[in-house]
Structure formats: C-alpha cells, structure tokens
Amino acid sequence: MSTINAAVLGSTGGSSPYAESKPLVVEQLQLDSPGPGEVLVRIKAAGLCHSDLSVINGTRPRPLPMALGHEAAGIVEEIGPNLGGDLAVGDHVVFVFVPSCGHCEPCTKGRPALCEPGAASNTAGTLLSGSRRLHRSDGTPVNHHLGVSGFADYAVVSRRSLVKIDPELPLDEAALFGCAVLTGVGAVVNTAQMPLGASAAVIGLGGVGLASLLGAVASGAREVIAIDRDEAKLAFALELGATSAVNSTDPEAADQIRAATGGGVEYAFDLTGVPAALDLAFKITARGGATVTAGLPPPTATLPLSPLTLVAEERTLKGSYIGTSVPSRDIPHYIALYQRGLLPVNRLMSGTLKLEDINEGFDLLHSGKAIRQVVVL
Asked: Which of 199, 207, 159 has its CA nearest to residue 47?
C-alpha cells in the first residue's frame, strides 16, 4: 500500500465556476498493491474530457466518492500476480476506459467496447475484478472512474485497461489516444466504415469531434463539413482540413447544408451528447446515408424520429461507443498514423495544467474555451 494524490469528487451538481465551488478536491489516498491480473502505473498525463464533466455536474450518475479521470497515459511501475509476460516494468501504456474481459459474448465477437463485465464494473466504480484499490486514511473506499481514475499520480488498474505503446511518443500526447482519438477516429473508420471519397459532416468540435474530423480527413473524404456554435472552433476546423464550416445556431443551417450538398452528406457524425445536435445530424444525412452518434446525452433524453424516413430512404442511425474499437489494435495504428503526420492529434491540445488547478481546467472546458487540456504529473 502507498499514499498517492488524486482528484476526488465527493458530490455532484455543484455550480460553475468550479474554481470557486471546487467539486474536485486533491486528496491523499491509500492505494493498494496490484492484485492478480492488475498493474501499478505511474501516471504522467491525463486529459480533461466532457465525460468527466458529466460526472461532476450529475448528468452521468456514478457512485461517490470517486477519483475521476479516464483518459491517461503512464509508465508501468509494478506487475501484479498471474499477469503473464506481455507487460514489463518501464513499459509505456495508454489507459482504456472500458476493460475487456475477453470471455463474454461481445468480447468473443470482437466487440470489446461492449464487454459486459467491463460495463458492470464501470457502473459499480470498481476494477474489472470487482475490487476497489483506493481508500481514504480511515479505510473508507473510494470508487474508480471507468477503471482508470487518471487524475492521480499513480493508479492500480486491470491489465485489460491498458495498451502498450511506442515509448518514443510523448506521454502528454499519448493520453489523448485513450479517449478523444479512440472515440472520434473510431466513429469514422470502425462504426461508419466510411469509404474513400465520401462526404461527411461533423457536429460538435470538442476534442472527440475534432478527432473525428481528423479521421474523416485521413480517410480521404472528398468533403468534410464542420458544424458548431463557436466561430473560433469552426475556424480551427478549417485549418485541420474541413472543406466548409457552418454555425449550428443558424436556424437555416440544415437547409443550407442540404442545398449545398445536393440533398445531404453520406455520413453525419454527432459528437455532442445533445439531442438537438443529433436531430440536426439526421436532417443533413442524405438518402441512403448513415448518421452516427458518439455523444452521451442524459439518460432521460429522447429523440424525435420518423421511422418512415428510415425505411423509405434506407437511412441508418448508429451508436458508437469508444469508436467501436478494438483498443489493442487501434491505438497502435492511430499512433503510427500520427507519427507519419497523417493524424495531427497534437494540434487538439489546448494546453497543460497541474493537478491542483484541475477545477479551473474544467471551467475552461465548460465554457468551450478549451479543446483538450492535459494534466501533467
């Protein structure tokens, strides 16, 4: 057992600015040694994501208290019992926020993002084993966030939550591959399986949305329309390769896009978690096209949809979780593309911050003034 520093959420629904309400408190916690099939990792970098913010504001209910953070990278410090020989002390790793057991039906069908034990442990706030390795000094257990709890200087996680990576990649950049890149690029190449020369639109230009845009550009889309309410993000999307940009607050946005594209795009991607944005994505999808959503709306959200449109226009509406990825396959592939200059993920980084400044970082994320900030430890 060792003492670590971690950003802990004690209650949800606190109001912004978070720099004043301080929903996250950096505490000293007790971290157990890794159990069977588990690994101790020294965390070097962790990204701030809207999924973390959704836990803070209560949109995504999670058991509390919880040490937050799910997009991270670090260095292996200790190997637990019965792990096998595929990881060694000193290896560089990226965390994956759904551990895959390898044995349930989705895993055996090559869909580890839908791992049933992984989903159950994430909901319960435990590691894949069902254990909690975090405690306060009085013995009170602290829940794990999506099997990672990356806003900390160390973490014990399941081996199934880690992907070994090229040690030449800077770890602050590597962290983004565990969520933003895996989810955004995967929505294009895995969920949609968008072919070369297709037309696409991306709604929501946060970290995941811009990663999706990069994926569409790298996949050889002939047209990529960037859609957001923020003019600065629209301008940035054009720098990253979007062929045009549309402000979603324009009441004529859908009509303009359909007119400009001759009836809509072949693939529309919603990365917002906002039902109105998904509705817009569906409206601008062409006959025979596919609408893909990777946002996480509140559990009570609903979507108005005409089933007739699905049938008469042979439309497809698909959900994408973690980019329908096989992380052990996709993360190294995406890193290789980045290293070749084909997937400029580093341009998504808005800046770095210290762990003690994490509430201020979430203020920037909440206000839309940052794309991907990284806590460097």
From this structure: 207
Q: pLDDT value at position 300?
A: 87
Round to whole Å and give the CA distance between 296 and 276. 13
Nearest residue to 110 via CA among 176, 37, 190, 195: 190
Q: Is residue 9 part of a domain?
A: yes
Question: Are 187 and 173 within one domain?
Answer: no
Whether 335 is covered by a domain: the verdict is no
CB 279 within 8 A of CB 293: no
* Mean pLDDT, rounded, for 347-352: 96
20 Cβ contact partners less than 8 Å away, ≥ 6 residues apart: none
Query: Which amino acid makes up residue 224?
Result: V
Of 79, 67, 53, nearest to 141 by C-alpha is: 67
Say if residue 268 is in the same domain as residue 191.
yes
Q: State pLDDT tens for residues 308-322.
A: 999 999 999 999 999
Q: Pairing state of beta strands 71-79 and 316-319? A: unpaired
In which domain, by residue range, is 285 found? 182-320
Total domains, the chain: 2
Q: For the segment 243-260, what is each residue's pLDDT rounded down to a tens digit?
A: 999 999 999 999 999 999
Q: Is the same domain home to 40 and 159?
A: yes
Q: Is residue 17 one of the residues assigned to a domain?
A: yes
Same domain, 197 and 141: no
